[in-house]
Amino acid sequence: MNERLNTMKYYDEYAEEFIASTINVSLTKCYRRFETWLKDDSSILDFGCAGGRDSRYFLEKGYKVTPLDACSSMCEHTLAYTGLPVMCMHLDELSFHERFDAIWCCAFLVHLPRHIMPDVIIRILNSLKQDGILFVSFCRGEGERVDSKGRFICSYDK
Questions:
Q1: 151 assigned to some structural domain
Q2: Taking burial as the number of CB atoms within 10 A of a residue's CB, which of 1, 41, 117, 118 is the most buried?
Q3: Sign (positive/negative) of CA torsion 137, 126, 102, 58?
Q4: pLDDT digit string (tens) for 5-34?
Q5: How many domains does the structure of the chain reveal?
Q6: Residue ranges making up the domain that contains 102
Q7: What is the pTM of this model?
């Protein structure tokens, strides 16, 4: 639990620095692959929206976007960057039921320990409508660690 709190503390304290380092990262290939499965009016939950980069991309493409993040600093930045209301909530509060056509979860789950992942995936899947689309990205590697910035990282090799 301490690792999760330290990770959230890092993102709250260094939100601007993190956003500046990731705002121009190109995810074009990932976006395009994801969008091939979407309908023009799809509703997307941007789960772990950070500074709103991906929310803004999908919003500009005409999708109905709901940004969500647990860190208040990230929520504030996303609101300012996208103009969208942001759901500022912790993972434990996630209780949507078949609400979204798609969920975009880019580099968020890497901050969760492996032992809670099955429950988290179930919560995410329950948030999707039938035949919903899920994008998830992880760090490649093996094991759990705390990086030099104090963030908890869980990597997967399969």
A1: yes
A2: 117
A3: negative
A4: 788 888 888 889 989 999 999 999 999 999
A5: 1
A6: 2-19+33-156
A7: 0.90
